[in-house]
Amino acid sequence: MGEAGAVLRGRGRTVGAAAGLAGAGALAAAWVAQHRRVGRALEAADAAAEGEGLVLPSDLRHHEIAVDDGAVIHVVERGEGPPLLLLHGLMSASGIWVNQLTDLAGRHRVVAVDLRGHGRSSVGEEGTGLVRMAEDVRRVMEELDLRRALVVGHSMGGMVALRVVHDLPAAERRLRVDGLAVVSSAAGPFLSAPGSTTASRVLVPAWSQFVLAADRAGMWSRPARDLRWWATRLSFGAEADPAQVRFTEELSRPVAASTFTRLLPDLVAFDLSDGLADIEVPVLVVVGSRDRLTPPRHARAMAGVLPQAQLVELPRCGHTPMLERRHEFSRLLDEFSAKLA
Predict the structure, then answer these.
(1) Is residue 49 scored above 70 in pLDDT?
(2) b/e string for 230-249 if b means 16 or more Cβ within 10 A?
(3) Which of 19, 120, 304, 315 has a 20 to 30 A CA-CA distance from 4?
């Protein structure tokens, strides 16, 4: 029996080793396959970027606006007419509005802001945060004398836009803002499951420390090509164009790890749900049905509380409708602005 047992154990080890080798081989094959897939996508993206129109117009007007803590906020604008003030999301920049700067400048004064710590805007002595960003936007509106604007915010920019409009004194709001468009965003609470608040207090600082450690190790600014591609790809729907993914990825590269870690707690904790009823301007709420980052339930909840809300859900669209649904999205902004007039 002892000899038979030894033989069985030997066979078991052989089978286990074979299974392990087979598993390792399958993982290696899967990695090679996805690596090739990313490579093909990047080649297609590089070839198609200009054809997709993902090139900023050459006649943009640039502004460098100083704010009270020493930060300088970079702003671009193009066109004349009723103003559109465009605020991008986390890890992005004013360039994300490339299509709207092209499509809408014939009928609008299109103004796009690099929020502090993003694009060509600096951070300043007070660091960064949603409230501080809202104060910067208010300064931009004053400096450029924007009146009766449609304020458009995407993702984090939507939170900033809500904060701006909510916090403006009534007289200044009537002067500066005709309406609001909140795109792929949330009014909070972002995490609503039982115990999520407590969990976030532990997990968010831990994740922030991990990101800072990765930055010190050089893994933030120069991560593996495949990882950066797939992380960006998450913000698109099922029909993502490789050129759009690559364009969005490039916009995220200049953003420092410290900017991300400072903003992460603000984003998780953001909750203006009790203040939505006070935002008494028309609001266009836009979301993609395939948005993985801010699922449609957030948009529906927001639209259900805002006094004057119009909800639009874009089928099969992900988190970036300004790119994924270029013409439809630009038309939505144009038509909504016309209604405000």
Answers:
(1) no
(2) eebbebbbeebbbbbbbbbb
(3) 19
